[in-house]
Amino acid sequence: MSGLTPPDLGSPDAPFAPLPDPRPPLAGPRSAEVVVVGGGIVGATTALQLAERGFEVVLLEAHRIAGGTSGRSTGKVTSQHGPIYSQLDQRHGRDTAHFYASRNEAAVHTIAGLVDRYDIDCSLEPVATHLHALTSRGAAQLEREATVARSLGLPASLTDDAPVPDAVTAALRFDDQRQLDPRAYVAGLAAAAEGHGAVVHERTPVRKLRPRRGGVNVHTDAGVVAAGHVVLAMLTPWPDLVGAFARAHPSRAVCVAAELSGAVPTDPSLGVDGPSRSTRRYVTDAGTELLILLTSGWRPGANDERDTLRELADEATHRWGATRITHHWGAMDQVSADLLPMVGGAPGTSHILLATGFSKWGLTGGTVAADLLAARIAGDRVRTPFDAARLPDLRGLAKMTAAGARVGYELVRDRIPRPGVRGGVDQVVGTPGEGRVIATATGPVAVCTDADGVTCALSATCTHLGCTVRWNAAAGAWDCACHGSRFAPDGQVLAGPATTPLSPRDLPGR
Predict the structure, then answer these.
(1) Spatial distance between the Cα atoms of 326 and 291, rounded to a whole number of angstroms
(2) Is 177 exposed, middle or buried (0-12, 13-18, 19+ CB in 10 A)?
(3) Residue ranges of the alpha helices (H) in 323-468?
């Protein structure tokens, strides 16, 4: 974020550990057995697992390791992914629900084991996670969820209490879970992978992949990396070889961190009815206890983040007794249409693999994906319902149809000129933090003035698949509602799947 929100919302970043010193970008052509593209939870864990097995691994990150969604999560390490197990059981059957449950529960302990083995300083602590309900309908939902979760072997128990300042009708508790500093954890994984011989390059965006006999050529600005296998471990894999853009949608959410007048509950919780809020405690290096309060997500551009952040700050103050908001931040996730992540190989090639669609539960989900990807590259046969090339269920198909209609709307939005172009521009020029899309005869133009008062005019057409971007004033960036790409005020790519900046345009009406 660029500091365009009010100062009473605190620092525009998560309160987690700072990123370590940057690693150098790729300096020229090279080769590797495996190239991992993306330095979040999936990429760092996959690189470590393969390096542990003796593979020659190169990890390429377009920006910074742990600098994206993985480093901006709330840091919950749990198999309790909302009330998901009753839904999985109903939609996909008991075997699929059991696979999801057992793998994610195992991932909780895998993460704890990696922290211990590599001495990763990431504030790992054991907790019991909770779902809580405020209504009788929510309580009935939790009773159904508890029945299925216990049948799947999960550490679930119903209770009448939850770590929230409300009178709850019911709560579902999962014991022996964890929480941590996600930024420090992912950075620690990358360092551990380097300790096993992996090579990590930051500020090295991948521009394209070109399959070749026996492998893939990975093209970057600094040269080509010849790889035997490529793992696309970005939030939104590109190139999209499995139709992931139609089977998952981007979801934006924001958090605040606050100091409370009293103690912060140790255990985290998530509401299943009423305003969907996720909470956890985080203790800074100075020993200050903070409450992290997270909203449910929305498509980029559907909400004004400034209003949502103010609403969260107000709730932290009046519901939780916050004395000061210390931080605010946001992150993007990919939500799967059929509730299952997409993990595995791309059709037509055994050399390109990918993982996406963790629906906001990427710490354990990404760990599961890394295990499946590393096993496949190593030649192990694993049967998984997460296959990236699978067909979605009927409900997932309906969501895909609705998502397709939304993409169609975003493709044509703001492409018909309307009266008042000059006035629209005048409201933006010279006003830091303001931005809007202006329809012109030559296409939509994105006009904004950044925090330093510099006005930029750019093509408003996302360079990924042609949707129209939207201004996010809280983040000081242009967002694409179709697939989650993000661009700086000057058009540079902040997050993919787009790889090409927005091109400069003349200021409309000037």
Answers:
(1) 10
(2) buried
(3) 362-377, 394-412, 421-428
- DSSP class of residue 72 equals G
Residue 439 tokens read as 């329809």
pTM: 0.86
Which two three-digit tokens encode residue 80?
Answer: 């309790």
Domain ranges of the chain: 421-495
Residues 70, 76, 78: CA angle, nearest 5 degrees: 115
> For the packed helices 85-92 and 136-151, what is the interaxial angle rounded to 10 degrees?
70
Per the CB < 8 A criterion, the answer to whether 154 and 174 are in contact is yes
CATH number of 421-495: 2.102.10.10
Separation CA 310–CA 142 (nearest Å): 30
Cβ-proximal residues to 496 (8 Å cutoff; 6+ apart), any chain? 62, 234, 235, 236, 238, 464, 485
Structure tokens that stand for 48 in this block: 């470590």
Q: Is the pLDDT of residue 2 over 50?
A: no
pLDDT one-digit tens code per residue, 460-479: 888 877 888 888 877 788 88
Work out whether strand 445-449 and strand 435-438 pair parallel, antiparallel, or are unpaired: antiparallel
For the chain, give the percent of residues with pLDDT over 90: 64
Q: How far apart are CA 385 and CA 369, in angstroms?
A: 12
Q: Can you tell me the distance from the alpha carbon of 458 to that of 271, in angstroms, rounded to the nearest whole number?
A: 41
Edge-to-edge strand ranges of the sheet holding 477-480: 469-472, 477-480, 486-487, 493-495
The string of pLDDT tens digits covering residues 138-166 is 999 999 999 999 999 999 999 999 999 98
What are the backbone dihedrals phi and psi of residue 260, each rounded to the nearest 5 degrees, phi first?
A: -105, 160
Q: Cα(285)–Cα(409) distance, rounded to whole angstroms?
A: 47
Cis preceding-peptide flag for 182 (omega within 30 of 0): no
3-class DSSP assignment, residue 280? strand
